[in-house]
Amino acid sequence: MAILLKSLQLINAEKIHPAQDYLIKDGEVILAHNSSGLDSGDNTEEIDCTGLLGSAGWIDLRCMMGEPGLEYKETIQSLGDVLASSGFTKAVVMPNTIPALQSKNEIQYVKAKASKLFTELIIQAAATRDNKGEDFTEILDINNEGVFVFGDGVSPLSNPDRLMKILQYLQKFDGILFDHSYDPLLALFGQMHEGDVSTRVGMKGIPNLSEEIAIQRNIEILKYTGGRMHLQTISSAKSVDLIRQAKKDGLDITADVSIYQLIFSDADLNSFDANLKVIPPFRSTADRKVLIEGLMDGTIDAIVSNHQPQDFDSKHMEFDLASFGMIGIQSFLPAMVLLAEELTWPLLIQKITQGPAHVLKLENSKINNLTIFDPSEKWFFDQKSNMSLSKNTPWFGKELMGKVKYSFNGSQFKRI
């Protein structure tokens, strides 16, 4: 059956196109041209998309699930449900499960359970055993299962020897290393960004230096080894400068930023809300300004949800004892709505479509997936509407604006 999307405004990296009719047929989105692409015998459903925006399907480069081992935080199915309802047609899942995604057994398990999901899950396999940064996993063996993204997820690869050798291994099959780069010793016991606010509220700070020194080291290693590296959730102004220069030097390096880094700053932690405790922490407004500039000039390739579900007990405690992380998939579109005036829809869409596709080398000239959304629809984020098994978010219990309405992925069309 074909689907005719009437009066849809499609967005790409260049602009928001005028409303036109588009046809979903044979697994592809094409211009309808007054429905001339339809045969008289077609069974066609028409959907009025007046007032709606659409783009190629969204890609999230960083989200976490709890299965296997931590199913009470998020299962593969619940993650798939929240991704699909939030407009994502592809997502990279981190390896921080129990056991870690570090052998053929775990990879095959996840692939089998994810095969029926609407959203395609791309596995980031652990580069070191149990994500501890020491013993290597069977990288070549795991690659035989179709995995090409490796890293330790929320754990930084702080051992330079291991980082260097992983980059060398990955070049055997054009794999890419994802790293959340920071020096854990410089961040030790830190609870928030080190600055005036941390001093005023009496919290041990995490300095920008902890990130910048790790990124500088990793860039130098990449110069030495070659290969592909993707730096995740960068947060400081100097980090942007270092990556910008590395790109000018011709290194195969890319980067992303968590969407909440563009919404909050360290000043928001005056409330001691543990749902705002994340790593890297919310930085200063000056850092945020440079992150915005990095998105605009192409230094930062993608925006990610950095979805990290935590159970109630992990967050409902004193701030300095609470776990890091927040869920961020279902609130992703409302966060983009808040940023749309400053960053524009074409740029935001580019950072969750073409940008991530470039990082993963998934560029495709045809549109075989689609996300359609209403940027002005209001909804209440509460227990009833929440699709995650966790609710560690500062948006919980609030009215948000921006709702995904339809999504198309390959042969599947979803009404949300």
From TrEMBL:
* Keywords assigned by UniProt, alphabetized: Pyrimidine biosynthesis
What region holds the Dihydroorotase catalytic domain? Answer: 57-237
| Highest rank taxon of the organism | Bacteria
Q: Name one Pfam family in it.
A: DHOase
Record PANTHER family: ALLANTOINASE (PTHR43668)
What name goes with this protein? Dihydroorotase
